[in-house]
Design a protein that fits this description.
- The complex is a heterodimer of chains A (306) and B (267).
- Chain A has 2 domains: 2-64; 71-303, MetI-like fold.
- Helices cover 76% and strands 0% of the residues of chain A.
- Chain A has 12 helices and no strands.
- Chain A has helices at residues 2-7, 10-61, 67-71, 89-119, 123-136, 140-152, 161-185, 189-197, 202-230, 234-237, 257-266, 270-303.
- Chain B has 267 residues and is of the alpha/beta class.
- Helix content of chain B is 34%, strand content 29%.
- Chain B is built from 10 helices and 11 strands.
- In chain B, strand 8, helix 7 and strand 9 form a beta-alpha-beta unit.
- In chain B, helix 3 packs across helix 4, helix 3 (112-122) runs parallel beside helix 6 (161-173) and helix 6 (161-173) packs parallel to helix 7 (191-204).
- The chains are: A mainly alpha (306), B alpha/beta (267).
- At the A-B interface, helix 8 and helix 9 of A face helix 2, strand 7, helix 3 and helix 6 of B.
Amino acid sequence: MSELQHIMTIDERREFVQKAAKSSLRKREFTSKFFLGMMATALVIAFIPLFSILQSVISKGAHYLTWGYLSKPQQTPFAFDLANIGGFSNAITGTILVDGLAVLIAVPIAVLLAVSLYESDGRVMHFLRVTTEVMIGLPSILLGIFIFTFVVTPMGYRMTALAGSLALAILMVPLIAIASEAALRDVPDTLKEAALALGARKSRVMLRVILPYAAPRMVTAVMLSTSRAVGETAPVLFVIGASSLTSWNPMSPVTTLPTMMFTYLQGSNPYIIKSLWGMALILMIIVFFFNLLARLVVARSSKRGL
Amino acid sequence: MIEEITDNGPQVTIMSLKNVAVSFSGKVAVRDATFDIAKNRVTSMIGPSGSGKTTLLRAINRLHDLTKGAKVTGEITLDGEDIYNGGIPTTLLRSRIGMVFQRPNPFPTMSIYDNVASGLRFNGVKKKSVVDEAVEHALQSAALWDSVSHRLKVAASTLSGGEQQRLCIARALAVEPEILLMDEPTSALDPVSTQHIEDLMSSLKEIVTIIIVTHNMQQAARVSDNCAFLLMGEDRAGELIEFASTEKIFTKPSDKRTLDYIQGRFG
């Protein structure tokens, strides 16, 4: 091998490389096209279920997007008028109440947790980090059982929107905290050093430099975990009381779209079963709205030139 | 204050380094640094990569405090007070010793105005009239006022690389530091921007003492009054070889290794 190189002049070697490149060109082009084709196929396969779900939810749910269904609460229809099922307003307000409260509870805790994980590296923090990461993988129904045991039961089996918010907050905190900590770690050290070199205290560096820089990604993490929470059934199912009344009171029983869908699925009224499509569509619109908001926030802040 | 008559005329010492060594987890990165920094002069630190110039510079405003396992020994005094074992709180020390970094690093989430004002705000200055005046003065000192005065609220990231570095100089100057550390401030800049920064340094030394680390020997010769030459020793730790007036270092150095370096025989 090395002898061969020694007997070749530069020109000969150049010619050799050019020849090899030319003769392998067709093969390389074929490989490239082959993999492009594979990727296109994979893309189509991935999109088929996605689009068919979207298509069926929209086609079967669109006619439920009327003022009547959106503004009236659910009602149990009489036997001679099975189509009179009321609307979804109690579940829509319940979803907004339970998830809104969950965000308000989860965000401050998650941000503080992320900052602590970022700032310290002791043993306790390592344990906390591992715990947080493991919590992301907890089956969400456990959170419902936990809240039922430690919140609902001590309050005399009182089911409340707040209990549901607490369960969802526990679901969201690790998701937001881990993503936020990653965002904090991506803040360039040189910005931190610049602030410190101006005589800034650690807390000021965090509040004025690190957090503003990481904020867009932290906001995205909040949005995505909210989207996840909005669609959850298990954690809230047996703690919020599945009320058919519309209420904005956190201490009253409420229902959310996923839980109402779950309970509706137990019945036998075909009109009620069909209306699940409408509720699914409303849920999808809510999630879509959250994701859109997340994208807008990121787009706006990247325009700032990060 | 002792006035010392040197090649550069009378000089007042503002800072002294005595046997300063920096090690990371027991591994020595630079040692034996002993020299005085003259007030209102430019002191340069030159030497090849790995000679510990930047490491030494960062010891002066205690930036190594952040690094786990980093240890600074020896003595650094500012106006006669030990900066490591004396009574100066680290944050106050850093507001007295500003720093400009290798790559321009304006705060991307802040406007031009807020970048310059940031040091004052970090240190608790809130009065708007004071901040306004300091911002204008600092931008003027950094020769940036004329080109940005009409767009102070614009994001700092819209400036060119050279302007960003001058903004960083303005940001450091706004807290009126006594010493300004510059860590290869022009290594990421084009020749014209480099020229601007070099011109700036000769006017800035009226108001602040400058310590500059540079790869570029011509730059050290052009801008500095005194010069420290560092070199990596056999055990890969940087050490001070020679400290003298820049003129002496570049014309008749006393150490052969200095001569070899300035004549371009290595490094």
